[in-house]
Amino acid sequence: MAGPAPTPRERQFLDPAVVARLGTLELKARTIVEGFLSGLHRSPFKGFSVEFAEYRQYIPGDDLSTIDWKVYARSDRYYVKKFEEDTNLDCHLMFDVSGSMAYGARGITKFEYGACLAASLAYLMNRQRDAVGLIAFDDKIVDVLPASARAGQLRNLLVSLQRLAPANETNVSKPLHQLAGSLSKRGLVVLISDLLDDPEAVIRGLKHFQFRGSDVIVFHILDPDELEFPFDRATRFEDLETNEEIMAVPGVVRDRYLAEIGALIDRYKRELGGAGIDYQLLSTAQPLELALLAYLSTRARAL
Amino acid sequence: MLSFLSPLFLAGAAAAAVPVILHLLKREPEPRVKFAAVKLLKRAPVEQTEKRHIRELLLLALRIAALVLLAVAFARPFLASGAAVGATGVTMIALDTSYSMSAPGRFERAQQLAKDAISNAPSGNLVGVVTFDDVAEIVEKPSADRVLARAAVDRASVGFGSTRYRAGLSAAVQMLGGHRGAVVVVTDLQESGWDAGDRMSVPESARIDVADVGPLAEDLAVTGLRSAGDRLVATVRNAGARTVEARLHLSLDGRAAGETSVPVGPNASADVPLPIAGRPATASVSVDDPHGVAANNVRYAVVGESSRSPVLVVSGTGELGRDAFYLQAALQANAAGATTYDVVGVSGSELASWSAARLRPVSAIVVVSTRGLERRARELVADYVNAGGGIIVAAGPDVDGDVIADVLGGTRLRVTMPADTRPAPRTLAPADVRHPIFKRFGANAATLGLVQFQRVSRVAGDGCQTLARFTSGEAALVDCASGEGRALVLASDLNNGWNNFPLHASFVPFVHEAVQYVASARPRAAEYVIGDVPPGIEPRPGIATMKDPAGQQTRVAVNVDPRESDAARMSADDFQAVVTRLKDAGTSEARIEARQQEEHQHLWQYAIILMLMLLALEGVVASRTA
Predict the structure, then answer these.
(1) What is the ipTM of this complex?
(2) How many C-beta atoms lie closer than 10 Å to residue B581's C-beta?
(3) Cut 0.80: pTM above it
């Protein structure tokens, strides 16, 4: 099963492989987000305004910095921006750092892609003054940065991301249940993972968040090789997590493998969608801006 | 046993395996890829490494087998079979059954030697038996059963033929079939068993062994019996080492007619006159010889009819003493065992008064002059020759070539007298020493070259065979067939005119052989030896009756060949020396047999079919392994 082919709109975004060669994670995140936002301003996608949700009339006591003076110049009336004023969402970035995330055959690994995505989302969330936190996990929780909107939180998050390295085996459900159990207020949970785990356990874990009242976005990151299986000669495949080795003849196994990966994706899409969980399949060859668009859509619904 | 016509092609099979093995040795290992979704890959039908190796080995085996089968097909395989074939050798026993082996106890000793040779043959060898005297007979083909060979030896018996080693060895070597083996010749090593100048070729793979029966201690033989007017003259030979008193018994027309005794010295002959009374038709003389060879103790002769074959000499005057002195003397020369002739002289004009019936009993006609030979006589002679008679023409000064051409019309013979009367010395050389005329000369045929021919005529004829040439290149002696008869034309005379032939020792045997040769077309001889009896006469000593071509009954005497009574022996080394080895003869015989077997079996076709089947299977396995 192949990832969605880049649309003309996507092609105007940055190639993830190019972004991967940028400097620091902060730079990458800024580049992506700023570019994305500037694109949004020029785009016909009106419904995804980050900065202007709606206006309301000034009530004495409102913060004067929120007055939109342009509107006043036009209308001689005082209006404040409701979106900026009413942001109060806790976003929890759950980042899979298991060994399988280290795979990447076309210039960027799933881990690097996921890290860029997490950094970009954190940057965007921070720009919107949302509280953002990071939970890195493999078969256990590796690192936790509680959600916060304080100054310096973004830098701390980016530093945490940069310190992370993929290792160990995957166990997505266990950290999900742990986090779900620890949440005290509703928020937004963003799961960034290749989901090469037991889908039943993963879905159950994600539904736990819903049960606790949080919204969930799942970014399912896969390498194009995992989606297309382009190998053409007998190859020894070594598991990145278990080091288990098998020899396979692509001509013989391709169809069956593609059916398996397709079935896995379909299941996630079907069951997560049925549970009201946003699911987005991302190929590491696709621009990150698509993920940002998906995030914004979900966030707008969460408000 | 599987054999190959072209075994060198098998080397191709070994060479074909090399690139296959090199390919596998240099085969690149599979690439290693770290992959995240191995869990999903495991759910697909992933091939196990061990199974793949097994398939690869199977592929290698199929490909090598196909290439080997291709090489085998080119090598033309066949299953060698046959009694005389195989890795084992062949031993042939050649048992001498000539009459010289018939002395008491002698053949029994030979049979024992033959059985010993059978027992001593290498184990695993096939053994066969051939008996021989004048001719060879294969009495037991080579087989692994030696009992059969011994039984064949026991069944063998002595005959009346004389020893001919060439016949026995040829048959035995042929039975070897070109394979390695041995021929054991069980014989008394008689020197007369080889003809003068004989050589025998055997393949390199064949070994010739001799089992010597031993010398003949003593033997008395009647080697000749001729009529001399009112008496018979018997020739008795003593092969022993001491003087023996030979007692002779005469029978006339089958009835005892007298006895006599005569001392005969050691290794010597004696002529014994035996008077005869009346006009008996046949006679026989026997000698008492209890310890010697039995077959040569009696000799037969036809007496009533002329025992000597008449030869008609056509000369200018009919007076032999004047026109054909040397020829008459040569024809009447008396050698032991040789045919003697009544020589009758007639002029050409007198011959015209003869009748065909009168001419019919003549053994041969020798024409030394065509003077007076008119049409009637020419027709008489032509009819005689066309009916099977023999004629010798001595194309000397008294012979007209046109007359001869007229007589032998069918040959289109051309005889021309030399234009140049000046003498030009030249000698004669036989063109084919194997011709019956020259065969008896053997190694002495070269003595004919001592004769000086001062003048010769030119002789040529369509369909005539040139038997000898002068050193100047002209034909010296031609053999022409004329109807049922034969004509020999000598390009010179026989009366010491144009040449000095009559003065040489080779003249007499030449005349006798020439007359015998032309006369053999219509046998008129009164005596035959066992090896030369014509069809219809049993090869057994005695008096036989035969019909001549004219339908008349005539009696002939059949006797053993007196040469077999010659006890002179050769050594085993001398025997071996006669045998010349031919390296390739046996090989080619075996190759011919092998080719015939392969062409009958066509095993290469099965190899090709099997190869194609293996290639099809290889294709299936390769597609699954790719």
Answers:
(1) 0.71
(2) 15
(3) no
